[in-house]
Every structure is written in structure tokens, then in C-alpha cells.
Amino acid sequence: MSPGLPFPQAAAALVEIGRDAYGRGWLPATSGNLSCRIDADSLAITVSGRHKGQLSVADIMRVDLEGRALDPQRPSAETLLHTQLYRHFPELGAVLHTHSVNATVLSRMVGEALPLNDLELLKAFQGIDTHETRVSLPVFGNDQDMVRLAGRVEAYLASTPALPGYLIAGHGLYSWGGSVEDAARHLEAFEFLFECELAMKRVSAP
Predict the structure, then answer these.
(1) Which of 71, 114, 119, 148 has the most CB within a 10 Å radius?
(2) CATH numbers and ranges of domains, the chain
């Protein structure tokens, strides 16, 4: 299992990621949510409705792995999508949910999966050591029922080896890693790959 980070360190890391992702256009307005494991039973997560480009440590709270608040603030409505991942992957250290234009548009252009192949940056993901590979990033239909959506994600992960991420159609990207640094690397890699996919679709359009 991931050893996690003490809450002050976890909160500071999420503040930094929020500001960076906002600056890159991946977290507009108050969209998205970010989390980091603290220990076996709890995680740090952004408070609902906070602007990710203006985060402070006061905008980060603790929840348990069932999504119950451990502080007197309200977590994101999508907290259950975070906790589902931490329960499924005990080695998980951080989960980052972003709303970039590229992720949102691509998630509406493809069906149940986004194929990615023959791109060097695929090697940013563990287990991939050559660009000569083909993988699929799952795309789930958007749903306001987080319990139902988390259940669909869980069923997929239980049956299919997966990249450290998935898309929600018309919504955005969930990416994760064994540490905050790994999750941030995966997020950056996915965003680069999304930009490449959209560029290739533009140049190949009739």
C-alpha cells in the first residue's frame, strides 16, 4: 500500500498541482477535484466549489475511504470516484480529476474507448517500454449518480488491465498514480496525447 503523506504535506502538494493545472487550462473555474492518500484509512481532497487556481491549504479537507467527511467542510460531489480508486488500488497515492478542453472534446468524439498507439509518450505509463504499442483509454458515460458511475468504473477495472486513467464523456479525465509525482506525470502525458490525437484528427479531416 502507498505510505501516504502527512496531511500538511498532502494539502500543500494538492495546492501546487491545482495552481499548475489551472495555469495550463486543465481546471477552469471551480471544476475538477484533487486528492492524495494520507494513510490506510483517509485521504486529503479539495473542498467542494473551490477555484483550483486559487487554492490554499484551507481548501483541502480529509475524508475516509467511504467518502465520509472527517472535517467540518463539504467534499466534492465526486469524492466517491476518488475513494473507489483508492480502495481498488491499495498502492495508489493520488487521484487528479481535470476538465481540459482536449479531454472533454475527445471524450465526446469516440465511443467507449479512446485508442492510443505509436506515440512515444505512451512510455510515461508503467509497463509500456516502446512506442510500438496500442492501448485503449476507457470512456464512461456521464452520470449524476456517483454510486452508479463508481460501480461501472469498478466493474471495468476488475476485468480489464487499464492505463492509470479514464475519461467521462463530455466531462473530463481521471488520472492517478502511486505518488503525487506519478499522478502529475500521468496527467501531463495524457494531456499531451489528447492534444496529439485532436491535431491528427484535424489534419486528416477531409
Answers:
(1) 114
(2) 7-204 (3.40.225.10)
Residue 112: Cβ within 10 Å count: 11
For 196, phi then psi, to 5°, come to: -65, -45
Q: What is the pLDDT of residue 129?
A: 86
Question: Is 0.85 surpassed by the pTM of this model?
Answer: yes
Q: Look at the block and give the residue holding cell 479525465.
A: 173
Cβ–Cβ under 8 Å, residues 60 and 46: yes
Compute the radius of gyration of the chain from its Cα atoms. 16
Q: Which residues of 68-92 are buried (b: 16+ CB within 10 A; e: fewer)?
A: eebeebebbebbbbbbbbbeebeeb
Rounded CA separation 148/153 (Å): 9
Beta bridge partners, 61, equal: 45
